[in-house]
Amino acid sequence: MRLFVQCPLAFCSVHLRCEGGLRLQNLSVQAKIEREEDGRLHVGKLRTPVLAREGGFMKGINSKIRTVWGASEIGFSIAATLEPAFFLFFLTDVAQLPLAISGFIAAGASAVDTVSALVAGVFIDKFHFKRGKYRPWLIVAPTAAMVFFVLSFTKIGGDLTAGIIIGVGYIISHFFWNVTYASIRSMTNVLTDDPAERAFLSGRLGAGAALGRVAASKLVPWITAALTAIVSGVGAYTACAAIVSLLYIAAMAVCFWATKGYDTESKSEGKKVSLVAMGKNIVSNPNLIGVVLHDILRLIAYYTVAAGTAYYAKVVLGDAAASGTVLMMFYLGCFVGSFIAARVAKVVGTKNATLIGVGGWLVLWAVAYFLSPGYILLNVLLFCSQVFFGFAYGLSANLYSMCATWSHWKTGENTVGVTMSIMTVAVKLGVTLRAMILPAFLALVSYDATATVFDAAAQAGIVQMYFLLPLGLLIASLIPLIFLFKIKDEDVAKMNEDINARTAA
Questions:
Q1: What is the DSSP letter of 155?
Q2: How far apart are CA 340 and CA 358, in angstroms?
Q3: What burial class does residue 139 get, using C-beta atoms within 10 Å of its C-beta: 0-12 exposed, 13-18 middle, 19+ buried?
Q4: Is the dihedral of CA 4, 9, 10, 12 positive or negative?
Q5: C-beta atoms surrounding 439 within 10 Å
Q6: pLDDT tens digits in sequence order for the chain, 505 residues long
Q7: What is the DSSP code (8-state) at residue 79?
Q8: Where does residue 50 rank: exposed (0-12), middle (13-18), buried (19+ CB within 10 A)?
Q9: What is d(CA 82, CA 423) in angstroms, rounded to the nearest whole number?
Q10: Can you give 222-250 as a three-state secondary structure string?
Q11: CA 177 to chain centroid
């Protein structure tokens, strides 16, 4: 029996032959196959797992990856929290730039950032390192991002000059953020062929992101306050940007270290793909279209609740300070759900686990609407609803990974980078559209920011925004996922077999 497997030691295709035992053929180096107690087969000193299955072997992840995967998202969330929380305040109150310049930077740079997220994916798929396609970016991109991110929290020269430097710093730093984001998610397809392990990796990314938000909600304000007491003005924010960037680099370096020996390309995988082919692969992939539409709608709901919590606490609960604890429960629930998402997917499949996750949040949020919960009950319902949503949030990367595998299988062209970058675009569109929808809804219900006491009509309006608006979005998000996304977990393994067979030919 002749079997194909990618060997991280030899950086080439390997064929195994079973004849009363196992031995490696066509290798430039000698490597030993060892069977572990859990049934995994490890190749060579790097001990990159090769999962045994009926009819062959497939790549698997090692213990280091299992332990540290998701650390990247903790570091990224800490760094990313500084920008939305303090960037506009920095422009207006710290750097004291004119409002016209501040507004232009904030709006213009954000719009460019959304476009650059897609460009980053194209960049990854067009640019190849000798030692790998995705893994080297985990070191290169965060380092480049740090330099320009620090520039976006400086003031050099007059208002116009400073505005240009800050704007350029913002755009370029976010481009490299997008490159890193797409690369770490593209690695899902490189690290393992096993659908269950890809779900595990996706879940850890979601859990890391949620945990990072929890940590950042306390850490970033603390760092900023501490630095402000030592270095006044612009310098404090510049130093804070440098510190959180170093944390980001360190987190990515951990993942770079853990994935040594994995990101190797075959001749087929390293083939350059034209921009036209990339675009065609995207628009001709109904599974991807379904996931993107689903992702955007559910993310608008997610960010609406996150941003709407402050209004609900102020208007309905009568305690604006309560929003901090409520948001903490929001993120913790999402962390728990993301952490166990892979286990749920292993039982019911990735698509069904996502549907259960969104559906569970939908049901609990409908219950919350009819109960008009107070402080304690809101925390309970919000936490439980986000445990459910964590299933979906934690499996997002795996959904996009499955779409990338389908496209590679269908077309023979590897466009994983641009496919995974679309996930970033969905996130940014979710944030942008929420930023448009929420103010419009507040205006619709005649919200008065200067009021200290709110009547029944104002409270009813905020309740509708906080509960009914996300409910409508969640219901709408289920439609494209149900009807357009048709890939099953078991299909991924079969598609990878076909891809590997074509690569070996």
A1: -
A2: 15
A3: middle
A4: positive
A5: 11
A6: 334 444 433 334 343 433 333 333 333 333 444 444 444 444 444 444 544 443 444 567 888 898 899 888 888 888 777 776 678 778 888 899 988 888 888 777 777 887 888 788 888 877 777 777 888 999 999 999 999 999 999 999 999 999 999 999 999 998 999 899 888 988 888 888 888 898 999 999 989 888 888 888 778 778 878 887 888 788 988 998 999 899 999 999 999 999 988 875 544 444 566 667 677 777 889 999 999 999 999 999 998 898 888 889 988 998 888 888 888 899 899 999 999 999 999 999 999 999 999 999 999 999 999 998 999 999 999 999 999 999 999 999 999 999 999 999 998 888 888 888 888 888 888 877 877 788 888 888 888 877 878 888 888 999 999 999 999 999 999 999 999 999 999 999 899 889 888 877 6
A7: H
A8: buried
A9: 21
A10: HHHHHHHHHCCCHHHHHHHHHHHHHHHHH
A11: 11
Transcribe 290-353 into DSSP letters: HHHHHHHHHHHHHHHHHHHHHHHIIIIIS-GGGHHHHHHHHHHHHHHHHHTHHHHHHHH-HHHH
51 CA to centre of own chain: 26
**DSSP-assigned letter for residue 129:** B
The CA distance from 315 to 458, in Å, is 8
Helix (H) or strand (E) segment spanning residue 3:
strand 2-7
Q: How many CA atoms lie within 13 A of 290 on its CB side?
A: 19
To the question of pTM greater than 0.90 for the whole model, the response is no
For tokens 């906080």, the residue is 466
Buried b / exposed e along 8-41 (16+ C-beta atoms within 10 A): bbbeebbebeeeeeeebeebeeebeeeeeeeebb
Q: Which letter, b or e, does each residue of 191-222 get, where b requires 16 or more Cβ atoms within 10 Å of its Cβ?
A: bbbbbbbbbbbbbbbbbbbbbbbbbbbebbee
Q: Tell which residue, 263, 11, 274, 262, has the closest CA to residue 129.
A: 263
Could you tell me the domains of the chain? Answer: 2-59 (no CATH), 65-265 (1.20.1250.20), 276-499 (1.20.1250.20)
Residue 337 to residue 418: CA distance in whole angstroms:
27
Sign of CA dihedral 139, 67, 130, 281: negative
**The two three-digit tokens of residue 175, written as one number:** 């481009």
Element (H, E) at 444: helix 416-444
Q: What is the spatial distance between Cα 47 and Cα 41, in angstroms, rounded to a whole number? A: 9
